[in-house]
Design goal:
The protein is an alpha/beta fold and 252 residues long. The chain has helices at residues 33-47, 71-76, 80-99, 115-122, 149-156, 158-166, 174-180, 190-205, 209-219, 226-240, 244-251, and strands spanning 9-15, 18-24, 54-59, 103-108, 112-113, 125-129, 134-135, 185-187. The N and C termini lie far apart (37 Å).
Length: 252
């Protein structure tokens, strides 16, 4: 299914029990709310598809993996309700990834910022290249990584999360992300990455689907409260995005 328009693209292909879901947007694969909703709905739909065992999540192109939230939409937010609704898009996506019945393998081919880091963290297993630096720049624009924090902290721990958050202007290398547990493995090129993703997802697809589902539930034990928590976090970001500080920072 290909759904191209000004709000980005979403393409899903299914082969050998593996669903490959690719999202894309001209602005460094950033996410307007419509694209967030499409991806959330697609993962929810695939979760109940008995013909697949594994989902590979990737983005298009050879540049950034994901630049996070759409700055244009953030600038357009004018009420608390609009802000909360926008950030709830990331909350809904992370929760859909968390509760998806399929193992999600992330193909992180390039840099990830903000919400893009959250998406990588919400994957059950993430493979990346040496170019896949990460950054949480939210404090620099007057908000904070509130919605994605639980997913990122779950992977790298609170101390590393704190370091990333306060170093809002600093890129952390792919090696740093690997050492902290965000990436399971890093390779030197996108060609190598594709080979690793294909080989790993094909191995997973040979396993008992029921066993994969049961072990995924074990991986995510203790996160049932995220449905409420992430919505509360979205409200915090929705309030802060209305500040003059944030509006001025987004314009610069």
């Amino acid at each position: 299914m290909l759904t191209p328009d000004k709000n980005g693209t979403l393409l899903t292909t299914i082969e050998n029990k593996i669903a490959t879901v690719q999202f894309g947007h001209p602005a460094s694969n950033s996410f307007p709310r419509v694209l967030l909703d499409r991806l959330t709905n697609e993962l929810t739909f695939l979760s109940d598809n008995p013909e697949i065992s594994v989902i590979v999540l990737k983005s298009e192109g050879t540049g950034a993996f994901c630049a996070g939230a759409s700055f244009d939409e953030l600038l357009a937010v004018s009420t608390l309700e609009e802000g909360t609704r926008f950030f709830s898009g990331f909350a809904n996506l992370i929760n859909a990834m968390r509760t998806c019945k399929k193992i999600i393998v992330g193909r992180i081919h390039g840099k990830a910022v903000g919400g893009g880091v959250g998406i990588a963290a919400a994957c059950d297993y993430a493979l990346a290249t040496s170019e896949s630096a990460i950054k949480l720049s939210e404090l620099a624009i007057g908000i904070g990584p509130f919605v994605i924090e639980p997913a990122v902290s779950r992977k790298i721990g609170k101390m590393a999360m704190s370091e990333m958050t306060l170093d809002a202007h600093e890129w952390k290398s792919a090696s740093w992300a690997h050492q902290k547990g965000l990436f399971a493995k890093i390779v030197n090129s996108q060609e190598e990455l594709d080979k690793e993703v294909v080989a790993f997802s094909r191995k997973l697809a040979l396993y008992n689907p029921e066993a994969l589902y049961e072990i995924k539930k074990v991986f995510w034990e203790g996160t049932a409260h995220w449905d409420k928590l992430l919505k509360e976090r979205a409200a915090i970001s929705g309030k802060l995005v209305l500040s003059d500080f944030t509006k001025n920072a987004l314009i610069k």
